[in-house]
Automatic annotation (TrEMBL):
Top-rank taxon, per record: Eukaryota
InterPro entries recorded: CH_dom, CH_dom_sf
SUPFAM superfamilies: Calponin-homology domain, CH-domain (SSF47576)
Pfam families recorded: CH
Species whose genome carries this gene: Desmophyllum pertusum
Name of the protein in its database record: Calponin-homology (CH) domain-containing protein
Domain Calponin-homology (CH), residue spans: 1-50
Length: 284
C-alpha cells in the first residue's frame, strides 16, 4: 500500500503542475480503488487535454509524405532522429542543421546552455543574415508547433541551400578530377615523345657507329695491302704512325659521320703516299 501511494503521489503532483484539476483527488483514494475518485481523475484529464486540442488545433501527429522526406533529410544531415515537428521544439536540431550548412556557425555554448527560444531565434537570425532566407516565423511558434506550413517552407528553403552547396562541392570535385586526368594524359604524351626521341637518337648513334666501323675496316684492309712487303724503316714508321691514328680514331665513340669521313680521306691519302713510295722503291 505504501509503495503504491509513493507512485501515485508524484503523478498527481505532475498533473496539477500542468493545469489538471485534482481538487478532492488523493493518492489514498486511488490506491484504495475508489471508483468515483478514479473516474473524477479521468474526467479531469480528458477535459484538460481536450480543451488544449481545441485551443491549438494544429498540434497533431499527422505528417504527410513530403514532411517525412524533409524529416529524413534533416536526420541524415544532423545525425539526429527526426520523426515529427516535436523534434524541432528545443531548437537543437535546427542549430545542428545550420552548423552543417554553414560549418559551425552556431557556437557550442549556445547548443549546450541556450534555451529553446534562444536556439531557435539564433537559427532564424543566421538563416536570414547569411543565407538570405526570410520568414515571418517566430521562435515561440516553432517551439509550440504552430504555423507548421510556414515552418515546412522554411525547411524546404534550407534544403535548397544545402543541395546547391553540395552540388557546387561535387562540381568542384569533378573539375579537380578532370584537371588531374588531363595533366596525367599530358605527362604520358610527353613521356612517349621523349621515348620516341630517345629511340631516334639511339638509332642515329648506332648508324653512325656502324658507318665508322665499316670505314675503319676498309682502312685496315687498305693499309694492310699498302704496307705488305715494305722493308724500309721509313715505311714501317709511316705504317706505325697510321696505325696509331687508327687507334685514336677508334676511341672516338660519339663523332659524326662527317668528321669520320674527313679522317678516312686523310688516312687514305697517307695510304696512297705509302703505296707510291713502295712503287718507287721497287722500280729502283
Amino acid at each position: 500500500m505504501s509503495r503504491k501511494w509513493k507512485i501515485f503521489r508524484p503523478v498527481l503532483d505532475f498533473a496539477e503542475h500542468y493545469g489538471v484539476s485534482v481538487n478532492g483527488i488523493t493518492a489514498d483514494d486511488i490506491v484504495k480503488g475508489n471508483l468515483k475518485v478514479v473516474l473524477a481523475l479521468c474526467h479531469s484529464l480528458h477535459r484538460h487535454f481536450a480543451s488544449s486540442a481545441v485551443a491549438n488545433p494544429q498540434v497533431d501527429h499527422v505528417v504527410n509524405k513530403d514532411d517525412l522526406s524533409l524529416f529524413s533529410w534533416v536526420s541524415n544531415v544532423t545525425g539526429k532522429q527526426v520523426v515529427n515537428f516535436q523534434s524541432f521544439q528545443d531548437g537543437t536540431v535546427l542549430c545542428l542543421l545550420l552548423n552543417k550548412i554553414l560549418d559551425g556557425v552556431i557556437p557550442n555554448l549556445v547548443l549546450e546552455f541556450g534555451s529553446a527560444v534562444e536556439k531557435i531565434s539564433l537559427a532564424l537570425k543566421v538563416s536570414s543574415e547569411q543565407l538570405s532566407i526570410g520568414t515571418s516565423l517566430q521562435a515561440d511558434a516553432i517551439a509550440n508547433q504552430r504555423c507548421r506550413e510556414k515552418f515546412v517552407d522554411y525547411l524546404k528553403s534550407l534544403y535548397m541551400v544545402h543541395s546547391n552547396k553540395f552540388k557546387k562541392v561535387h562540381d568542384a570535385f569533378e573539375q579537380r578530377n578532370l584537371r588531374r586526368e588531363l595533366k596525367r594524359q599530358q605527362l604520358k604524351e610527353q613521356r612517349l615523345q621523349s621515348e620516341r626521341r630517345g629511340s631516334e637518337l639511339t638509332y642515329l648513334g648506332d648508324l653512325s657507329q656502324d658507318k665508322s666501323r665499316i670505314a675503319r675496316e676498309r682502312l685496315k684492309i687498305s693499309l694492310a695491302s699498302a704496307s705488305k712487303g715494305v722493308p724500309s724503316d721509313e715505311n714501317l714508321g709511316n705504317v706505325n704512325n697510321t696505325r696509331r691514328q687508327i687507334d685514336e680514331l677508334e676511341q672516338i665513340s660519339n663523332g659524326t659521320v662527317k668528321d669520320t669521313g674527313r679522317q678516312i680521306d686523310e688516312l687514305e691519302q697517307v695510304s696512297r703516299t705509302i703505296a707510291s713510295k713502295k712503287m718507287r722503291g721497287m722500280e729502283l
